[in-house]
Trichome birefringence-like N-terminal domain-containing protein (Fraxinus pennsylvanica), 353 residues
Amino acid sequence: MGFVFRSLFLSLLFLFLHQAHADFNSTDGKLAGGCNIFRGKWVFDASYPLYDFSTCPFIEDEFNCGKYKRPDKMYLKYRWQPFLCNLPRFNGANFLEKWRGKKIMFVGDSLSLNMWQSLSCMIHSWVPKAKTTLIKREGISALVFLDYGMKLLLYRTPYLVDLESQKMGRVLKLDSIRNGDAWRGMDMLIFNSWHWWTHTGRSKPWDYMEEGGKLYKDMNRLIAYYKGLNTWARWINRNIDPSKTKVFFQGISPTHYEGKDWSEPSKSCSRETRPFSGLKYPASTPSSAVVVNKVLRTIKKPVYLLDITLLSQYRKDAHPTYYNLHKGLDCSHWCLPGLPDTWNELLYAALFG
């Protein structure tokens, strides 16, 4: 009976994802005139990067490819160009002025950390002499631009839903989000989650999943992700006042460990020095991105999807590879300066464009 139920469940999952792939069409990303800022191409721009790694004090060593002597530099010289419009040029002084006295919080995993540090550097490059203070405590970090009273915060939570230590072990609670108390009172929230949902073996930081008081040793990870995101969606509906808080979802950041994704099966991101330049990226939309899109459609409050997946899929050249503190191959995170700066340019366009 269990086998039959599991087979039926997986069949329904397949149908759900197949239909979702068919309907996948982000309705966000539109500027005046109907331009979708997430559809475009990468173009060479000699004025890039937007800052220098040696002058930004906020880059952690896992993203600092320049410090670890990455020899090629072309990956720094690409600008995202939407097909039907131009992105507004990022202006850190304008950002600080517009968000004076406000609190902006990134909520998520190390990809949120990647984007948070990028935005910190982008703003700092405009006001290098501005007084700042950086406070780091377990699970939360805050960069304060003192002259402007603006706080850039990072709340580390890889699943958004709660992960608790209990007598039987570590429990990932798919229907609990008490963490959310720390997110209240923000003027802007930028959420992200997916990277850790796929971990197995020793790198899996939970022993059980729980839903409705029932424990599971494991579960199809896309189903678990869907359940967890729905819990987050309910939190948004219950706790967000759109007149006081803008909400973004960062979107799914792709990995480049398998060259078959860009039709070069023998490769990984190692030694890649140019973006993918074809008309259509060979790998399909990740199922996790489809799940995000499906959940966002159910939320009654406005949540803006930073639909970074496709434009980031093109950037097989932009990972730290071996040029980082850990020395191991990293095709998940991104060099700084680098691709996350574009994510923040898109955030800037959504706010000011």
Q: What stands out?
A: The chain has a mean pLDDT of 92. The chain has seven helices and 13 strands. Residues 28-352 form one domain.
